Amino acid sequence: MKKQELVQRIRSKRSFLCVGLDPDVSRIPERFSGDVLAFNRWIIDQTRDLCVAYKPNTAFYEALGLEGTRILKQTIAYIGNNHLIIADAKRGDIGNTSRYYARFAFDTLGADAITVAPYMGADSVQPFLEEAGKWTILLALTSNSGSSDFQHALQGDTGQPLYERVMRTAMEWGSTDNLMFVCGATRAERFGDLRRIAPDHFFLVPGIGAQGGDLAAVCTFGLNDECGLLVNSSRGILYAEDPRRAALDLQRQMDEALKNYAPKVFE
Ligand SMILES: O=c1ccn([C@@H]2O[C@H](COP(=O)(O)O)[C@@H](O)[C@H]2O)c(=O)[nH]1
Where's the Orotidine 5'-phosphate decarboxylase domain (predicted)? Predict the structure, then answer.
């Protein structure tokens, strides 16, 4: 899905919600009898009109063995072509291996985007960026507490935090049409800075809901004239008493935020 199409979908749905599909068999309602695919289909049916993206985290499927890969592929097929599908796999290896990670995510699974770790540098990220019409979503400032171990560390030569160096360097590898950044909602105080570094790139923002991130602050400082945000919620929707209601609450907050902070999206 091209950026213009994504922005058009955000505009018409008045939503930049990404629903995380992280099925935990021990938390799926009993009536599904552990049938993960049936649960995923139900969640998708409940949320289709309220979100613009789905993000299955591959860990939850890999843990189910061969059957998990089948479920993931069928889930992606069930979503269809009208949503951006992000394989949250946080890959990255020597170039030759990254090429096969890309092939798995884009060709075997049918995803539109994949999350990638930047640690191994340019040649580890390039094979993902080379895939025409696909998105690479690079970890910049993650939502977990351990993100301060490395990502905030100031770089001796420039005095920039590492996440800034990652973003500025990667912006030379990719463009606003094939590269996004993961920026955690639990780091909302940094969103002004993140937006200054990358004014025109989309950010994938996990960390609201179960991790306690601040959606309002993310929107205030993170929205740009094309929206520029995909905000993810996984457990906060999947295991809510009423998943549709939980998604609708978020969509309404997003609609308000777009009107207040990004009215140009509608022009
Ligand atoms: O910095 C990051 C990067 C990825 N994630 C992933 O997003 C979802 C969040 O799930 P919630 O249940 O909404 O907390 C999950 O798949 C994480 O692995 C992240 O949280 N932070």
Answer: 16-250
